[in-house]
Write a structure and sequence with these properties.
The protein has about 750 residues and is of the alpha/beta class. Helices cover about 35% and strands about 10% of the residues. The chain is globular, with a radius of gyration of 27 Å. Bound molecules: 4-O-methyl-beta-D-glucopyranuronic acid.
Length: about 750
Amino acid sequence: MRSLIVLVLMVLSLAAHSEDGSRLWLRYEPLQAEMAGIVAGSISSIHADLSQPSLDVAVDELQKAFQGFIGKNVPHTARLQDRSVVLAVKGSRLATRLGINAELQGMHRDGFIIRPIVRNRQSYIVIASPTQVGVLYGVFHLLRTIKVGDFSPGMTIKSEPKFDLRMLNHWANLDGTIERGYAGPSIWRWDELPEVICPRYIQYARANASIGINGMTPNNVNADPLILSDEFLPKLKALADVFRPYGVRLFVSINFSSPRIIGGLPNSDPFEENVQQWWKTRVNDIYRLIPDFGGFLVKANSEGQPGPMDYGRTHVDGANMIAAALQPHGGIVIWRSFVYEPDGIDRANEAYLEFVPYDGLYAPNVIIQAKQGAVDFQPREPFSPKFGAMKKTALMVEFQITQEYTGFSNHLVFLAPQNEETLRAETYAFGPGSTVARMTDGTLLPNRINAIAGVSNIGAETNWTGHHFAQANWYAFGRQAWDHELSSEQIANEWIRMTFTSDPAFVEPIKQMMLSSWETVVNYMMPLGLHHIFGWDHHYGPEPWTDVPGARHDWLPRYYHQASKYGIGFNRTRSGSGHVDQYNQPLSDKFNDLNTVPENLLLWFHHVPWDHKMRNGRTLWAEMAHKYQEGVDSVRSFQRTWDRMEGLIDSERFRHVQSRLRIQSRDAIWWRDAVMLYFQTYSGMPIPHELERPIHDLEDLKRVRLPLRHFHYWLPHFYWRPALRPNPADTRPEDPSRYF
Ligand code: GCW
């Protein structure tokens, strides 16, 4: 009796936690009858002839999946059998016996083939790759095709990643907080490592392997030098050991002043021999513990971080010095180009001015990591012109998966279309076809390191990312890093089916909702090329009016919107900051000319009068009003769409998403009212009468204070900027339970 009660309790507790989002897209729920029949009929066992860590993981994954999919234990057999799934690594006895080595010749080391082979009247589904990790990728691909409904036992698939290094950057601090993290504290428990290996680390590595992510930095780019201390190296080793079977290589974000701060040297000048020696020795120490260590990610001379310029040296001097220490071990330096010196004319120009003149001078094991846009991760930015300008230096894109500027984990925003827009953007570096993707994936600039990075959105929350739909952004980044030609639609389709259900009544409307969600957030936050009109520091809500006495002008919204009674927008044309000329022709002319600039970037490149005539005949002012209203209307339609889904999925996730959509809807109205009412004080024009009226008063909205204490984890780690100060004119008592 007692054991029965225990069993019931176990089942109940399982049920209670089963749809909490912790399983991500790796939910192996029973297949629909037809696919279950096909799988059960074509797969009877698993065979892999050598025991290697990644193959063991692969076998385990297949067994788990088939158990869930068809409710059957598919055994791992010592011999080939009819209807075996066969896992073969190039050059192994098994691969030779199957005669598959030739096909793997010249293939990317992470690539794989899935195809049927018939021998002696037995048929197998073979998953083969040049490496064991490649086989694991093939296994995850097979499981995806099954879940998405594309599987047939006769199918042949050959897949290779477009980027060699597909990595996540965690902006997690060593104290457990995460800069710009919205899903709870960090999953890295440094205080417990290396002794305690939290099971989440394994799940993390597994999830990354399932989408092809093969590199990561666990710590913030605003880096604590302690990460390289004697105390931390064994902790790093423990993580690297966990990740290795899943093909995820460990990198570390470093602080340029480490030699001085933890090495006890008088300075960290890259020209000093003892500094160079310090890096060499430390790097050797790391490789002794972690032979496949990836290298360092560096944020230098940016936002208060130390760097070579502190000693009158250049980015090249700094990057190449560290690269020299890593080079003998095959490690690389990923040097960020997110820099913007104060007092320039235009922040958008800065990184280009600091980096492009040094094109070609970086060591071969240095790669420059540039944010997708020229300023920051704004809701919409044109791609950074550096991607079309640096032809002799390896360059990689940094996307932001965490939603610093798109509503945190409160707003449903599927970012794949944004990444897609950047990756497919034409730079014209070598004429048409020189897209950002092809400039960085080794196609147009071969023989260089090629890579892509995303700033991770995961934290310790049960569902990993705060919002269930934010998981899709982690998923999409991995899929796009593997293949930037995949469409956002295909990625959404896969993710929905794996994460929720294959019921078309759910898949189709939710796919449409996801695909329009990025344009929606652009509309209700910053349409028509508006940018950086966020609240000071938190970057969540609207504060186009913010003024912080003594702050750098390029941290304040007014610098970006430049609104006056005459008009609005940042003049980056030849009569303004000249930023347009950092782009190649014909883009520079196109952006420079008011008649040809894409209207969704109008105010990014131009300062225009309020009554400027848009191509649809509306005034700029009216068009802005329409865009904001469109944004609000779309979120409301998301709410309606979502409510119709009740019953098609579990109530746990249904309710969670429903409640976040409510916040998003409220926030969209907040944005619309705040921005329109504020700019109206300049334009003096009425909100078009066919549109909804504002429901707030501007003065009330100006008094909104975010309940910061509820958002501990997005407070930046560095305290060199003035903290949010209460508005002295604000006499209302603070009510942290509401925004306004
Ligand atoms: O957008 C800014 C963020 C900072 C971040 C910085 C960067 C890690 O507001 O929090 O710092 O970018 O990318 O370095």
